[in-house]
Amino acid sequence: MTTVSKPKSKSVKISANLPRAELELLRNLAERLGINMTDVLRNAILLEDFIQKAREDGSKVIIKRKDGAMQELLTRRVE
Predict the structure, then answer these.
(1) Who wins on pLDDT, 5 or 26?
(2) Sequence-ordered list of residues with C-beta below 8 angstroms from that of 26, at least 6 positions apart, any chain
(3) Model-wide pTM > 0.85
(4) Do residues 71 and 62 make contact, with C-beta atoms less than 8 angstroms apart?
(5) Which of 26, 38, 63, 65 is most buried, judged by most C-beta within 10 A?
(6) Is the pLDDT of residue 79 over 60?
(7) Selection from 31, 39, 75 nearest residue 54 by Cα
(8) What is the pLDDT of residue 55?
(9) Are 30 and 44 in contact (CB under 8 A)?
(10) Are 20 and 27 in contact (CB under 8 A)?
(11) Do 51 and 43 contact (CB within 8 A), yes or no?
(12) 30 pLDDT exceeds 80?
């Protein structure tokens, strides 16, 4: 019997310059979520891509708060 395994995607190591406050946010998120900082960054990239594609299609991303209030999620470009 032959088994076929999915090929692993190749990872590339990068370096990033972050202000100390943002690095601390990254560390705190990783700790709160129980994942490493690389996975936090990967998730953030995927989420940003989803949001931008939705906005490009003319959609809005809405957050429904636990009290029922609705709020549109707006993102900004980082410069």
Answers:
(1) 26
(2) 18, 37, 40, 41
(3) no
(4) yes
(5) 26
(6) no
(7) 75
(8) 87
(9) no
(10) no
(11) no
(12) yes
- Cα–Cα distance, 63 to 53 (Å, whole number): 17
Question: Position 16: which residue type?
Answer: A
One-letter amino acid for residue 73 of the chain: L
| Structure tokens, 61 | 């991303």
Compute CA distances 48 → 2, 20, 75, whole Å.
Answer: 39, 22, 9
Query: Which residues make Cβ contacts (< 8 Å) with residue 58, sequence separation at least 6?
Result: none
**In this structure, which amino acid lies at residue 21?**
A
Show Cβ contacts of residue 45 under 8 Å, excluding neighbours closer than 6 positions.
none
